[in-house]
Design goal:
Length: 429
């Protein structure tokens, strides 16, 4: 078995890649620009011999014919899948097309990569037979007209694909939209056994019901079998931090010796109610007295009819410990940002530890970060979601939850904080 030798700055490989550039005759000026971006990306990371092979193949493709300009991540993903640089799903080399996409994102040519639902939706439709595909496509068009987002449409397709797979395994040749009540009940029972989480089962059933309701409205079926099924929802509870854990977390964020980035993450989540997505996509705007945080805004949709918080979060200068935390964080952030290998000045609130780029970090990184911080401080690993629910609890503890409607919560769920019972988070055994 051959051992892979990795080197961050392998002179021989870099010299060979530079030689490729000297003998590179792109089919268009844009193609040459793409190859330069790929080379810039490679020089930031560990380089293997396989990267040189990928560069040689990419060079040949860029010399063959002019490429269209990339304007979205959907184009990047489609091109990546068509060229098939990595036959293995978890290749350590990565895909050159996606790397070019990351560089274009840094330049601001394409938006941040947050969701590939639009591309996945097009691919998911191919799973169904032509007749079913036609019906589902018509249903999706209605969802689009009513301003459902691509991620919502993806959830519908996942549910319908799950139902179709179960029908095939049950040797049921009935068309998806003509499913009978006994078959639907058996399917829901199978879902209950495989998914103990009630929220998943409820959402799964509601998507099937809405799809069949539309089929009935369009005259494709006479009766909706979901009308004969009722789901009993268990008592809802809010999982929050215990009073002892809250005291430990507040002591941590107020301590001058705490890590400024970790302390600010906990503060923004537990006091200001920012979500993981808010933290990942937020940018920093230094102010004379304190910090301003610019939040990313998703487009308005069917379920998101208004924005529930200002786009710019102006952090207050009081109390003094919080002003001191902001200054400490900004000093730490400025020092780190000066070392980032950046293509354009995007002032990301959270910078990656390796400082190879200033793009938004991954959702998995932020999840692990909160688990690590809370386990170290409070003795129990907790997610950002738990800290945010604790934020809602602290702001509504007097019985008035109206302030939550301006901190990112919907008005309906903000009101639920006035009456929902609480339960404390406990460590999993």
């Amino acid at each position: 078995m051959k051992t892979k030798i990795k080197s961050h700055k392998n002179p021989l490989i870099i010299q060979k890649i530079l030689a490729l550039q000297n003998n590179f005759y792109p089919a268009s000026e844009y193609n040459g620009y793409l190859f330069n971006l790929y080379h810039t990306y490679l020089t930031r990371y560990y380089i293997e011999g396989g990267h040189l092979k990928q560069a040689i193949r990419l060079k040949a493709l860029l010399e063959d014919h002019p490429w269209p300009a990339f304007c979205s991540w959907s184009q990047i993903i489609i091109c990546s899948q068509e060229l098939k640089f990595n036959p293995l799903p978890r290749s350590s080399l990565g895909c050159p097309i996606r790397k070019i996409g990351y560089m274009l994102q840094e330049l601001g040519t394409i938006p941040p990569f947050t969701d590939e639902s639009a591309h996945w939706n097009q691919k998911a439709l191919q799973f169904f037979n032509p007749e079913t595909q036609t019906v589902i496509t018509q249903f999706i068009q209605i969802l689009i007209k009513t301003k459902r987002t691509a991620s919502t449409i993806r959830n519908y397709l996942i549910t319908l694909k799950h139902l179709q797979t179960w029908l095939d395994s049950d040797s049921d040749s009935t068309p998806l939209w003509q499913i009978h009540l006994p078959s639907l009940e058996r399917h829901l029972k199978a879902v209950t056994l495989s998914h103990p989480n009630f929220a998943y089962r409820r959402n799964h059933f509601q998507r099937i019901r809405k799809f069949l309701r539309w089929c009935k409205f369009e005259g494709k079926i006479l009766h909706n079998p979901c009308d004969a099924i009722t789901m009993t929802e268990p008592a809802r509870r809010l999982t929050i931090c215990s009073p002892e854990q809250i005291k430990k977390l507040f002591k941590f964020i107020q301590s001058p010796g705490s890590n400024p980035q970790e302390a600010l993450l906990v503060t923004l989540t537990m006091i200001f109610g920012l979500t993981s997505r808010d933290l990942i996509l937020a940018t920093l705007q230094p102010n004379a007295d304190s910090l301003n945080i610019i939040l990313d805004r998703q487009p308005l949709s069917f379920h998101r009819k208004r924005y529930n918080r200002p786009e710019v979060l102006k952090l207050p200068g009081n109390p003094l410990w919080f002003l001191s935390l902001q200054k400490s964080f900004y000093r730490h952030w400025s020092e780190q940002y000066s070392k980032v290998k950046k293509t354009y000045p995007r002032y990301s609130l959270i910078l990656p530890k390796h400082l190879y780029y200033n793009r938004p970090i991954s959702r998995e990184w932020i999840r692990k970060q909160f688990l690590k911080i809370t386990h170290s401080v409070a003795g129990t690993p907790m997610t950002a979601s738990t800290l945010r629910k604790t934020c809602g609890h602290l702001h509504s503890i007097t019985g008035d939850a109206s302030i939550l409607a301006s901190l990112g919560w919907s008005r309906d769920f903000a009101f639920a904080y006035t009456w929902l019972p609480r339960q404390y988070v406990t460590p999993k055994k």
